Structure to design on (145 residues):
């Protein structure tokens, strides 16, 4: 004789024992995680976007580009944190100009942004595109058209 299902299992879909433990395992993993890692567990891409948006739209665009350039957004968290740390004591207009330039040339790491911030603060403040050099023998783009 066959035993009815409702005697062994409660009504509803069959329960997988692994699925019942999922919330408990998540809590345990968080408790067993080192304290230095628990801080990073709360970071999300939206959190970095909101931090960057407080500086300006170009900075937000740079942070979005950094996160999008990585296979997994979590791989760009440290880079984003480094960029935002670089901008901590900087005038927002300068940070915006540097972010715009970094997006323009595709500088999506902290070292490149630091170099832009250190080398061209005057050009970044003016917002003028920087040329490599100006010489009388250079024809320019209008010559060929």
């Amino acid at each position: 004789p066959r035993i009815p299902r409702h005697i062994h299992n409660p009504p509803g879909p069959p329960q997988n024992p692994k699925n019942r433990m999922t919330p408990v395992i998540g809590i345990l993993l968080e408790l067993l995680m080192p304290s230095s890692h628990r801080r990073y567990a709360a970071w999300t891409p939206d959190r970095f976007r909101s931090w960057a948006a407080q500086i300006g739209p170009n900075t937000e665009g740079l942070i979005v580009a950094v996160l999008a350039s990585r296979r997994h957004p979590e791989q760009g968290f440290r880079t984003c944190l480094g960029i935002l740390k670089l901008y901590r004591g900087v005038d927002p207009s300068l940070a915006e100009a540097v972010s715009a330039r970094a997006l323009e040339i595709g500088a999506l790491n902290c070292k490149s942004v630091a170099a832009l911030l250190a080398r061209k603060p005057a050009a970044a403040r003016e917002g003028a595109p920087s040329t490599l050099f100006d010489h009388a023998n250079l024809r320019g783009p209008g010559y060929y058209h």
Observations:
- The first helix runs from residue 5 to 8.
- The mean pLDDT is 79.
- The two ends are 91 Å apart (CA to CA).
